[in-house]
Amino acid sequence: MPKNLTIASIVAPVILALFNTSIFGYQGLTSYFGFTIFALVVFLLSVYASDKILIPFPVFIFSGLVIYVSLHGVVLRNFNLTHYYWICSLVFLWAIAMNRENKIFAPMVFSVLSYTAAIESLIVLMQWMKWLPSKNDFFSCTGTWQNPNVTAMFLSMCIYAVLQKLTASKKKSFLYFTLTIILLAVVALQCRTAILAVLLFLIGHFMRKGSATNALIKKQNNLKPLLIIGCVLILFSLLLAFKFKIASTSGRLTVWKNSIQLILQKPISGYGIGMFEKEYNFFIAQHNNPSNDYVNMPYNDFLEFGVEGGIIAILLWFVFVVSVIYYRYKKNYSLLPVIAFLIIEITNFGFQAIPVFALFLLYCLLPENDGMKRKQAGNTLFC
């Protein structure tokens, strides 16, 4: 089988994870099966097409995490769809590792993601203008997912791909158009986390070596412009959190507080992978703790992992993230995709947002575009 066809198929699990339909009853199952099945397919294709396999160390650390998650399910006798999801995420990461050295891999992935983001953004904007029906009656626009936060976070992560193409491409009109409609779509979806991720990517892009902003800072020989930008970002974050959505922020803080109490009750073993929703709401009913609504996630992946898998799961995930940061730093790749996902999983949810998590796994080992690789480690923060 041609290697180019295998590489082209790598993005398929990410794209298929974007779709929600009622084929399986619950709409999210379409995304789940689309990702898991095609993750296995691209893994088998990659194994068949690969001449030699050199796997970077973050993949082995993630393998350890998934082994722990799987054994955790076996020991507690609650092996479920969430465990299969982690296993398929692992084989997807292995498939990425086996194709990452191909020269056309990064340019092809960035191109496909840019087109996908453009189409998804147009769908969001047409829903907002009432030209298309929303997939959720409670929101004016949601994109192809029922939850607008998932669509917004996915689009914000796609900004990295668009900016990579924008810097390397000579034909920029389509990319500027794509960037513009992504920004409009994220604003229309009203997701605070996605807006923060977009700001991070844009600031990183303008601060990169060779940009006008970077040259201005060096010319002035101080960090005042950077500090001003940082202060604006922090102020905007606080306004989003405490001014415009006070009730939502207050509710999440309550969920975080209760989740910490759950972790303290079973800090080592946890309650079981995929069991947060059941155990949290049982805890609320049992202890009569304050909670506004039925809660199905803590809006913080670290707390979710802590409740479900204990402190060991948190540590393993933390070590994996650090390993990815170290890997990309040593390769002189931008760290912004990792930082953006950290923002997402600390302030919202990353694991359950299937297309977002799949895209993060793709970015973990994805090289920079041709001509974009950094020659100095000091430039790795920026796009």
TrEMBL record:
Signal peptide: none annotated. GO terms for molecular function: ligase activity. Its main location: membrane. It is found in: Membrane. It comes from the Bacteria. Residues 178-318 form the O-antigen ligase-related domain. Keywords: Ligase, Membrane, Transmembrane, Transmembrane helix. It is a multi-pass membrane protein. InterPro entries: O-antigen_ligase-rel_domated (IPR007016), WaaL-like (IPR051533). The chain crosses the membrane at residues 7-26, 32-50, 57-75, 81-97, 104-125, 175-203, 223-242, 305-327, 339-366. PANTHER family: LIPOPOLYSACCHARIDE BIOSYNTHESIS PROTEIN PA4999-RELATED (PTHR37422:SF13), TEICHURONIC ACID BIOSYNTHESIS PROTEIN TUAE (PTHR37422). This is O-antigen ligase family protein. It comes from Pinibacter soli. The lineage of its organism: Bacteria, Pseudomonadati, Bacteroidota, Chitinophagia, Chitinophagales.
